[in-house]
Amino acid sequence: MLKNKKILITGGAGFIGTHLFETLIKKDNYIIVIDNFNECYYSGKEKNLAKVSQNHEISKDYEIIKGDLLDDSLYSKISNDIDIIFHLAAHAGVQYSMHNAEQVTRNNVVGLVNLLEFARKIEIKKFVFASSSTVYGNPTYTPVDEDHPKNPICPYGISKLCGEIYTDYYFREYSMPITSLRFYSVYGPRGRPDMVVGKFFNLVLQNKEIVIYGDGEQLRDFTYVSDIINGLVLASEKTESSGQAFNLGWSNPISINLLVNKMYELANKPKKVSYKEKKKGDMDITHADITKATKILNYSPQVPIDEGLRKTYEWQIETDKH
What we know:
Blueprint: E1 6-10, H1 15-25, E2 30-35, H2 45-53, E3 62-66, E4 84-87, H3 94-99, H4 101-121, E5 126-132, H5 155-174, E6 178-183, E7 186-187, H6 196-205, E8 210-213, E9 219-220, E10 223-224, H7 225-237, E11 244-248, E12 254-255, H8 256-267, E13 273-276, H9 291-297, H10 305-321
Parallel strand pairs: 1-2, 1-4, 2-3, 4-5, 5-6, 6-11, 7-10, 8-13
Antiparallel strand pairs: 9-12
Helix pairs in contact: 1-2, 1-7, 4-5, 6-8, 6-10, 8-10
């Protein structure tokens, strides 16, 4: 586990960012968070960050920089002696990107390039880029390994693939020690409200109907957030991970119908489900082959879907009380 490092987390007030912050700050690392705290995208970021930082002292243990990676003036506010950058900031979401392609492209691609230029100038010791399984599009075979053809079917996936091409360029051209991680359907406490698990639990608890787009038999490789955090940390520690991309998933996909059944059983609520036509951009199956990550990173996901759903449900119940 990383210790006594100076670490920059972009998107550090977001879902995965706050979990990474919470994990790393416990190991005497100094954390710099960059986030634009965009309330239009989703709310609750400041509250989430305040909760995970409450036992730590600002300036002594961490600092928060409110700003946008597209803003050139931001970079003068960042210390030049950073050891590791975890780049999590992005406009995420398949459906959001279908309606906001220009915004998603500008934020996810130009923001990354700006950060890579900063990282190059300070000679960063390690750069970890959060990519996505959406770079593959609908797979031609499963499970999907890292060499599978890249055919994204939404602007979000295209922006992440473009990001990977840039990270590969900076690795080859400038020998930047950079690793790309392709996340698979991350879920857990503090998840974005537009994500399937959080959105469905909200509807279940309010006794509202869940709308499933398609027949519900589409498969998703749901991966609990703590397993993703473990993969991020492992990638930052392994020098041999530089210049490579890795799948981070659970590698045991389930159907949306089965997911919904498990959620209703947990909540002990009557099932209310309807079906509508499948949305454009949605993939039929995501299924990670994690052989490479297991071999090189020692990545080994620990939280099966039933345990992860229970933890998320318990968090949701506690959050609703407050």
